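Page 42, continued from yesterday. The earlier attempt failed because a stray header line got pasted into the input along with the sequence. Redoing it now with the clean sequence only.
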Amino acid sequence: MPKLGLFMPPRLRSGQEAEVERHASWLELFYDLVFVAAVAQLATSLGSDYSWGGILRFSGLFIPVWWAWVGHTFYLTRFDTEDVGHRLLTFAQMTAATSLAVHVPAALGATSAGFALSYASIRSILVAEYLRAGRHIPEVRPLTSRYAAGFSAAASLWALSVLVPVPWRFGLWGTALVVDFLTPLTAGQLHVRFPPHLMHLPERFGLFTIIVIGEAVVSVVTGIGAAGLTLESGMAGMMGLLVAFALWWGYFEGAKGAAVRALSAKKHVRRYQLWLYSHLPLLMGITATAVGVRHVLHLAPGKALPFPEGWLLSLSVAASVLALNAIFLAAFSGSTRHLHRFLIPYYVIALLGIATGTVSGILPGIALLGILSLLCVAQIIFSLREMPTADAD
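This time it went through. Structure tokens are written below.
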């Protein structure tokens, strides 16, 4: 094991090193634990208000939490350096992310100022990391300067929002998120010059996906614990686990979401961005599905979910399947005339999931979950087909 340096300059991990085997570090896994807590907080908040308004509030908070994790991950995939300075900056981000998670339950109410300042702190530390990288690696300054400027502007808007009363404060949050998202989207050829590591990045996103799928398992355990173990709750719990298993299968086996990127950044910048941003609806859909399963477990035997809740559960499963399709499209190397034909069964599954929501108010909750489980099993079966052959680009 190499000796830990005190303050070593960041080094560029793009280019030829993208071909070198590279896995998540222990520090990155430790960093992820904070976001385990944040996702749990988001799921708990959604569980207390599983409605259209609740899903809107959940989405508005999930986006900055996910983007905070993405920002640190993308920095590390290019500039990770094992030194004390980097560890201290990571710990500072973890502290700010912990504060973010603490403020989630009332982030759109009493603790909105704390949530905004926590997020501004996370982005400000990220800006400091990019400025540090640009100072030591002159050739990457076009990228680091662009990121530092964009993320600084967004962080400033988040910080200034505490001076603006609610609900106008949330308008500044939305503007800041647009700036945050546009900063890497408009980087253009800089992604080609300094691509992310094509092994490290998918592994990191796979690990975060596992964290979110884990929330579905927690929902089954806590749901059965609250309802008591009976034949019906046991069956519902098995179905909930089956849905979680199908989503895991769909990501890691069907969509190949965590597979090593076979794409050339020069030719496939749009695919790379589709792969990245498709994770957002996938992770929100999985979390909302987990909350819906927990609500089914809390039902009295034979009782139906309230119609809005049944709709949300069905739409969450459908959204997850559609997001998996998008990730598959982004991950598939080369073009093919047969690709969309290959994906038709998955689109049909998503449509059937949506259609199931229309009768959710008259079906017992366990029957609704049973139909969604069967659709998930069908997704696994279709994923066992032979992959289409890629035509040359």
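Notes: The mean pLDDT is 88.
Reminder to self: strip header lines before submitting.
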